Amino acid sequence: MERILFIISTMGLLILTGCATQKDMSAIDNRLTSLELRDAEARKNREQMESEIEKYGKNRDVKDQEIRKQSASLHALIEELREEMRALRGRLEEIEYSLNQQQKAADGFRKQSEASSNQLTQVATKNEERIMRLENYLNLESTAKTTSVVPVVAPGAPAKAPKELSDDEIYNLGKQAFEQGDSETAKKRFQELIDRYPKSENADNAQFWIGEIYYREKWYEKAILEYQEVIEKYPKGNKVPSALLKQGLAFQNIGDKANSRLILEDLVKKYPKSNEAKIALEKLKEIR
User: Fold this and answer.
1) Is 155 within a domain?
2) Alpha-carbon distances of 78 from 3, 29, 83, 85, 214, rounded to whole Å
3) Is the Cα torsion angle 191, 193, 198, 201 positive or negative in sign?
4) What residues contact residue 35 under an 8 Å CB cut-off, 6+ apart?
5) Residue 130 falls inside a structural domain
6) Nearest to 221 by CA among 130, 124, 128, 126
7) Which among 90, 110, 130 is the end of a domain?
């Protein structure tokens, strides 16, 4: 009876916590009801047998055979009840194990969902940053290029005409600043050269180095636009193969393998003997 009470209390806990399924709990409930009835019958028989023993104690020989039969039947019933309770406990343990496994699977799925959500958030943030850069470039870059710096002259000081720098001098100043890591000064010098000497032999080089500045800063979208300026404005210049190569690499860096592959293939087709074409062929192996 103690085992039956233990199983009933265990089933109650499972029902309260919502762990067992309705089907399993219904089956267990039916079996417990049957066990209770059989247990009550066994107790009744035992009490009857004890009464019979007390009543016919003086005539035990007469009732001995009947008592033995009742005793054997009672022991058999008790053993059957024990087997039923053991089977019931095993079933409850199986249900508990199954529910634990389901809970672990649910926890794993939740963690995986959280990781995927975090990854999507990071990708969205990066895309927003890229869009913001492009918007800043499209809306503000033209204004920045046309802004001129007016030198400050001390009151009463004689005005001096600024020294006119040649295109070579401006280009060399830009290259020097670029090599020293002063990207802002280098960019201003290269843009100055393009604006003042658009037909200079150094103009295409200056445009290419502007693209290199943005590439070095990992602003790949802006670098792609600057390299395109080299390709379109200076199609016969010596920097076109380099611009194509770096443009293809920039697309690869932002995950656009399709455009990267097209540009590198175009480079190999148009400039097959160039050093840039050799590098492009190696990169194409990686992309494919």
Assistant:
1) no
2) 13, 20, 9, 11, 88
3) negative
4) 4, 81, 84, 85, 88
5) no
6) 130
7) 110
Question: 141: closest CA among 221, 196, 259?
Answer: 221
- With H, G, I as helix, E, B as strand and everything else as coil, classify residue 147: coil
| Residue indicated by tokens 């199609």 | 235
Kindly indicate the confidence band of residue 203, based on its pLDDT and cuts at 50, 70 and 90.
very high
The count of domains in the chain is 2
Do 174 and 281 fall into the same domain? yes
User: What are 221-241's pLDDT values in tens digits?
Assistant: 999 999 999 999 999 999 999
CATH number at residue 200: 1.25.40.10
Q: 256 pLDDT exceeds 50?
A: yes
> Is residue 167 helix, strand or coil?
helix
What is the domain range of residue 172? 167-287
pLDDT for residue 274: 94
Helix (H, G, I), strand (E, B) or coil at 271: coil
Residue-level pLDDT at 84: 75
Query: Token digits for 130?
Result: 């890229």
Q: Rounded to 5, what percent of the chain is helix, strand, coil?
A: 80, 0, 20
How sure is the predictor about 149, in pLDDT bands with cuts at 50, 70 and 90? very low
pLDDT at 282: 93
